Amino acid sequence: MKKIRIQFTWLTAFYSPVISVMTGGFLKAEGLDYEWALCEPGTSAMNSVIEGSADIAQTTLTHAFAPLSQGKEYPCRHFAQVNGMDGFFIVGKKADSNFSWKKLEGAKLIALNGGQPMAMLRYACHQKGLDTSKIAFINAGAGEKMLEAFLRGDADYIHLQGPVPQQLEADGKGYILDREGPIVGPCAFSSLAAREEWLITPEAKAFGRAYRNTLIYLNQTSAEEIARAQQHLFKTIDLSVLTNCIRDYKELGCWSLDPTISLPGYERMLDIFQHNKLVDIRFPYDQICAPFPA
User: Is residue 141 part of a domain?
Assistant: First the structure.
């Protein structure tokens, strides 16, 4: 049985298409075994693909912007969409039925420093008409360090992907105040990437069939059933919380039935990064993306 090696950047329910292709048995159904790994903080899933220790990276197509801007070779192609919407939440220390984004001005907000999460957050603030110079962005590190800083009371708000916001709410330690996705709008937020030579293999085509079936499953199956299949990967998250998180993402429309990276979604990511002055070149779609291996 051929083995597919998958490298995750983050392990969150937001990336359920990549998780469920494993936990839902879709790779096995195509005669494929699998192994997966999670990046160490500060490292890139794409490096594992480039170096040959992984076949597929759960990543973002914006990973290609920096090397291409520097005139460097980019040996990989992004071939499938994972999320067609931003999956971050604004979480506050207190419940606030009258929350507005204007309240972020003059407040402290814990967020990942730099990269795509900060670019998306700043773009959402722009869409809401905020002056981001009035927001005290707190760089508390990543992952658990961010959460520890929030629970310690270092900030009024925190910017997180699920299921941590849902768990904070269930524990009475934080409250989801808004979702960033509808503010940013549809976009090619996250993707799968591989080396070009791998994408023409029979294993890539088998993976493509498995991934298509996973997207059908995610759209037609209840959030609770999906959560039950994934729960062993989220040992610190209650089943009801994981279910609520997956339901949130289903309602947002994060997981399209179409696995291809759409041109409008691709262009939207360029718009966002140009707004943040992180890129000044409109790279052609086929310089970064490849057809889905059906």
Answer: yes
Q: Does residue 292 fall inside a structural domain?
A: no
Q: Omega of the bond prior to 163 within 30 degrees of 0, cis?
A: yes
CA 176 from centroid of its chain's CA atoms: 18
Phi, psi of 222 (to 5 degrees): -65, 150
Long-range pairs, 38-41, Cβ under 8 A, ≥24: 38/7, 38/8, 38/10, 38/11, 39/7, 39/8, 39/9, 39/10, 41/141, 41/142, 41/143
Output the six-digit token pair for 133: 């110079």
User: Considering the entire predicted model, what is its pTM?
Assistant: 0.93
Give me the torsion for CA of 285, 288, 291, 292, rounded to 10°: -130
Same domain (yes/no): 129, 275: no
45-96: per-residue pLDDT in tens?
888 998 899 999 999 999 999 999 999 988 899 999 999 999 999 999 999 9
